[in-house]
Amino acid sequence: MTRRRFRQGVLVVAGWAVVGAFLAPLAWMVLGSFKTTVDFLAYPPVLLFRPTLLNYAKVFADNNFPRYVFNSAVVAGGATLIGLLLGLPAAYALARYRRTAVGVVLLTARMAPGIAFLIPLFVMFLSVHMVGGYTSLIASHLIFTLPLTVWMMVGFIEAIPREVEQAALIDGCRIVGVLMRIVVPLTAQGIAATSILAFIASWNNFLFALVLSNDRTKTLPVAVLGYIGYNSIEWGTLMAAATFITLPVLALALCVQRYIVRGLVAGAVSG
Amino acid sequence: MLIGRRTALGMIAAGTLAPAARAAAFDWKRHSGTQLRFMVSIHPWTQWAQGQLAALERDTGIKIGWEILYEDQLRQKLPLTLRADPGAVDGFFTLPSWDAAAFSRAGWYAPLDKFIHSDATAPDWGFADFFPNILKIHQYNGVQIGIPITIELQGLFVNKAMLAAKQQGVPTTLDALMSTAKALNDPGKDVAGIVTRGDGVQAVYTFAPFLFAFGGRWLDEKGRPELASPAAVNALKYYGELLRTAGPPNILGMQWKTTYPLFQQAHAAMFIDATNFIAYFKDPSQSRVVDQVGVATLPAGPAGEHSTVISWGPSIAASSKHQEATWLAIQWLTSKAAMISSTQTTHLPPSRQSIYNSDVYTKSVPPDMIAATKQEIPNAVPNGANPLVIPVPEVRAAIGEAITAVLQGGDASAAANKMQKEVVSILNG
Amino acid sequence: MRADLSRKREGWSVARRRRDWTPDLLTAPALVVMALVMGFPLLYLGYMSLHRWSLIGFAPPAFIGVGNFVALTGDERFTDSVIRTLYFTGLGLASNLPMGLGIALLLDQRFPTRNLLRALLILPMVATPAAMGLVWVVMLDPSLGIVRYLFKLVGVMAPPLWLSSPAWVVPTLVGVDAWMWTPMVALICMAGLAALPGEPFEAARVDGANAWQRFRFITFPLLAPTLLVAAMLRVMDLLKVIDIVYVMTGGGPGHASETINLYNYLVALSYDRIGYGSAVALVLFALVLVCTLALIRLRRAAT
Asked: What residues in B contact A35, CB-CB < 8 Å?
């Protein structure tokens, strides 16, 4: 074997060992979702067992589960969409006109602990009887989707050559036109990546939903806690639910993984 | 606990017998068309009830929004909603040992006495059928604030096979418990002599019977904390020693969600906690000790044996605009027929004497459970799970710190004194 | 060319004079919404922090000025949580950064399936933390968990008690957090590595420098700004950690894993002392602000 081949081999092994270690807990979760509780809690752990689909059946038989998926989708979708509508123009202003005020405000938002907003928001929403509604949930999620959107889009916008916009502006295009006809198409991939990251952040959010949702608008991470019963935990079902919750997110992330980093870094660098 | 469709239909059939037969004497539909909202926590009974709502609506015309929340969530949301949004909630699930002091002070319970002894109650609903001292659990200052659903005691669960293997009998005194636990403790084989809660805050519950067994109590007659008494110190010392020497190595911080699997998977010889757990030890799809599990009364200390007895149950919100309708719904859900159905599903000891003594309950649990709980009920301390104060979470945290300290080998006296001081300061504002 | 530019410039300045409000219009909606969901709540938070405030309302809110903040300084449980959180953050940085850099260096090399590995690496980052926390609890269980089994396989018979050990609970949680976020650090470093110019490396190779020397004298210094960006992002999240703590230990055993944010949650929402809780939230906010600004300064100095 040539020296180079050997080195390549070592790298492949090392790479898979590292990534494999990171993926192992996820694999364990998926494996567990097919085990009965007895098998799941068995020690020494069992790798060979009688798989069962009962856990997934239970998850889907629960009449409320589709509702929780719906809730998560509505809240995450709403927070992402509104984040985009508000964040894209703001990101443009930040990138092209150096309107740093917005940048500072949003960076501060990123730094603040969620609970600093959660407490007053809860009290405020309570007094207008809005706790538990989609509006309060989406509004609270904007606290992190909006900064994230601006943060990432600034980087993608800065990557557009200025001349293209300037040409359009000279031609008499108004700002809105520039945004719609030039910025959006040219940053389409960036927008997709940003939206997906915002969606994931909102989908995974636990604390805000714990405090601000009610039974009707409960999102999935909070619903997962529901499998911790009064006297027992249905581990198999819990794993099935956890797998189900994580799956869409994993799939989405894989689609845009190339742009995730670009966005993450770009915002931080220019901020 | 999630219920399949077939069982739900079965329960609906069972549940509708009584009201339909008596329709002539009592008008169950008198509040037809009302919409109610109940806020409850995750509990086998609330999950059973959720499956009953369709039948309830059919019989009474009342539509209920049955909101099941994670217990922590309920404890945050419910007080806030009752205070800030009067009328938003009509009925709720309450645990008097935790809620009664605070909720009564805030005036959130609608007293039930006026409903029970009026024509708003079906004549055959059977108030007298409830165990009188269980009803007392849901009374505060003499006022009935809720209807108890179950009788939750604590018991000593043993793995009969493991005891037999080491020629040990079931311990009936605290001294015997200590020696049996030590004898059965086998770290080499991954078996703990005994396991119970080690997480400070949660352990307050399982620590309580030990406190009472040594003759202690949470509060004195004037409601002041009595947590530095010799009994409290002895109880702390005992609890710490028991679990440190015969408990699993990771006892510190162990919550019920990790203690019961140890016993269930035959990694612990004995287990102390709520009697409710029997269902999960007898369930072959989860348990490895289905045939080995035995139940006994809690061991007796110098002051005898005193389990805690608590009970969740539905209450009416004082700010509800549909109090009579809410009462009607609660009646329906706690009628004899309903309780037969719920007991069949949850296997929890019912609060109605007729059902408790009937085959429905006695045939659903092992005979030693019946015997053990029968013995415990007369001595049990109602709502003894924690001091009956207003700031329950904070006080529980303070007591929990003392338990954590002794589980780490700390001095019981010092821990008790610290606990007393802290609780006094919390209660003083 | 010049004539073109000056014409364009004229065009711009004419346009500018008429369109002065444009950037403000662009940012206005975002700023308005931020003011509503962030600005106003923060002001309200400040207001509440100056009161003794019970939400359940046995007494009306009472103004006590800086009373809450003074009480904080004497609150042992609070100061312990601050030290603990700083310890958590320090451990987190010390583990995330070197590991992330190492993984980045590995995956920066060209070898078959590298791109697939890069893609798979992001998965821990995006998995739902609440759900994964519970999975980890089971895996780490000292009696029934697979982690114990794996240790046994390599001959360690008595591994630490992980989440049940007051000494090990924080490192264990840092480990779970590292599992989730080291991939992010790695990805950031990979982007940074990809942006490095090639010439210095060429020159070094020509001069005969070996791999370690190349790393120490070229890669590492050039990568410093990127590492600081990663550090900044991590510090912000580490100081605020609550999700995994809530789900996995609830702050226990005892208070051994109680971070500032968790204590804040308990005080405000469980013990019903909203005024005091607001004060804690403000202090936490200030702490994150200070640390992040320090890192930004450092990064400016490094570039």
From this structure: none
